[in-house]
Specification:
about 525 residues, mainly beta, Immunoglobulin-like, about 50% strand, rod-shaped
């Protein structure tokens, strides 16, 4: 604000002296001009109210403006009818042409969120990087003219890339990560006294060129008829590391060259972290058949962006688990009787041959023997006995025996139930086998075999008769031939030790002597003499 007694009309010239050779001059009827091409007057107003004159001026300088000093004072030289007067405005100026980098970040080009990478972070080899930023003056948040500076993007193992900025100083560009090192943007001042201050900071990135891989999994196979599976797999990741969240798992059932049913989905959870991490996923699916395959793959990548490689990384490169039949399959293959046919009221040895045509099972199982009799439209079931059986490793067949006292004449069924308590899971759970046999009546005159009562009475009677006969024979032999000849006569009623019988599953040898007499003899060893077989034993 100036004071002129002659008012504004008396002003002829006003010089705004910035010192150091730069002047802005106003002349009446002409306006403002500058003696420095790097300084331009943008606008001004000169108004007067009585003796007060008000001057407002706006001017700008280019980046090439170089006053030689960083600051100075504004001096006014005013010319009017009274001459030239120098006035000190008390206003100073400072000039700073330095530029700086702002809003600088590096992200993965395919990241829709443009998440900034951190120092010492990991990126995949040849990952496409998006580098962005903005150039502004250090002293004010204004963009310098685009032609006053240069912007270069620099990455390891590649040449610097020159990029263009817009009118607001923004720029962006993409470069590939060829190796670990410093990733940065450099600025250059194209002219003038300005510098780059502060210098842009570089970002150190590490290139991870090793994708994660599955190095182990359990189980190696799936039992046939299974409907659930807990799949465990170990992932090795060297470098960036894996995300800590759940890992999606997808599976399909493959039967030959075809897929069966719908895709199975699951989410694996982290069990053990580290360079080799362990994960578990629970899967459910329809019953599987022997010969099927469960093909599974994971959707996971490391923090650098490397996707899983190798087995289990894709539907066409799955982790393939075969379906194997591991269940046993037990059956009763043969039933034999001794004596055969069985006789009413006489002890009979029932021998049953068991066979496992499936896989070995170390679990015991129960076998029962029953009789099934149909009489007058009614079925009567009686259990003869039950035994627990355990097949040893490598053993596929065994024979068990039951002692049976037939109490029915005629036809009946002997029913064998293998794994009667259904303790084992088998391929075929139909384990009931039946044999139709005929029980003969006891021979006429042999009341000894008719019933237990008859057996007892007959035994006592025979014992008495035997004792009387022995006494008479002894007396008779002593009188005629002596005791030696009597012993030889008695021996004629016993089978000779050289005679051969039939070895039964219980390990004893049996012989019917005389033939068709239904009198049985047994011995344990072929060198032993024959002994009468006790029907109760």
């Amino acid at each position: 604000t100036l004071h002129d007694e002659n008012w504004i009309e008396d002003l002829e010239r006003i010089v705004v002296d910035m010192r150091w050779g730069t002047e802005l001059t106003w002349e009446q009827g002409v306006g403002f001009s500058s003696n420095n091409p790097e300084v331009q007057v943008e606008s001004f107003t000169l108004t007067g109210v009585g003796e007060e004159v008000h001057l407002n001026i706006s001017f700008s300088v280019t980046p090439l403006f170089d006053p030689g000093v960083s600051h100075g004072q504004f001096i006014l030289r005013v010319t009017d009818s009274s001459g030239v007067q120098a006035l000190d405005t008390g206003l100073g100026w400072e000039f700073n042409a330095d530029i700086m980098l702002a809003d600088y970040f590096i992200s993965l080009a395919d990241d829709p969120n443009h998440t900034a990478l951190e120092d010492d972070g990991y990126v995949a080899l040849e990952a496409r990087l998006l580098i962005s930023g903005r150039v502004r003056y250090s002293a004010a948040d204004l963009a310098p003219p685009a032609d006053s500076y240069l912007v270069f993007m620099e990455v390891p193992l590649d040449l610097p890339l020159l990029v263009q900025t817009d009118e607001d100083g923004h720029f962006s560009g993409t470069m590939d990560a060829h190796g670990s090192g410093l990733y940065r943007v450099t600025l250059q001042v194209a002219g003038g006294p300005g510098t780059v201050y502060p210098a842009p900071l570089a970002l150190r990135l590490q290139v991870d060129d090793q994708p994660p891989a599955i190095i182990g999994s359990e189980p190696a196979f799936i039992p046939a008829n299974a409907t659930t599976l807990t799949l465990q797999f170990d992932l090795q990741e060297v470098g960036a590391g894996l995300p800590t969240g759940e890992i999606p798992v997808s599976c399909v059932i493959r039967r030959g060259l075809e897929t069966v049913g719908e895709q199975v989905q699951g989410a694996a959870t982290l069990q053990i972290s580290g360079e080799v991490s362990r994960h578990l996923v629970n899967l459910s699916f329809p019953p599987l058949l022997a010969g099927d395959y469960l093909d599974c793959w994971l959707e996971v990548g490391d923090l650098a962006g490397n996707q899983l490689s190798g087995a289990g990384s894709a539907p066409n490169w799955p982790l393939s688990l075969p379906v194997v039949e591991v269940r046993p399959d037990l059956l009763a293959s043969e039933l034999t009787l001794f004596p055969d046919p069985p006789v009413f009221g006489r002890n009979t040895l029932v021998n049953i041959t068991l066979v496992n045509i499936g896989n070995h099972s170390g679990e015991p199982f129960m076998v029962t023997l029953e009789t099934l009799i149909q009489h007058e439209g009614r079925l009567t079931v009686s259990e003869v006995g039950r035994q627990q059986v355990l097949l040893l490793e490598g053993e596929t067949t065994t024979t068990i025996s039951f002692a049976w006292l037939p109490d029915w004449e005629g036809d009946l069924d002997l029913v064998v139930r293998v794994d009667a308590d259904e303790a084992l899971a088998e391929r075929d759970e139909n384990n009931t086998y039946s044999w139709t046999i005929t029980v003969k009546a006891a021979p006429e005159g042999r009341g000894f075999f008719i019933s237990q009562t008859a057996l007892a009475i007959g035994g006592v009677a025979l014992l008495l008769l035997f004792c009387i006969g022995m006494l008479l024979a002894l007396r008779h032999r002593k009188e005629e031939d002596g005791s030696d000849e009597w012993g030889e006569d008695m021996a004629e009623d016993e089978p000779d030790p050289s005679m051969q019988g039939t070895v039964q599953p219980d390990g004893y040898e049996y012989l019917e002597w005389p033939s068709d007499s239904e009198e049985w003899w047994y011995r344990e060893d072929a060198q032993d003499p024959w002994a009468p077989w006790d029907e109760d034993g």
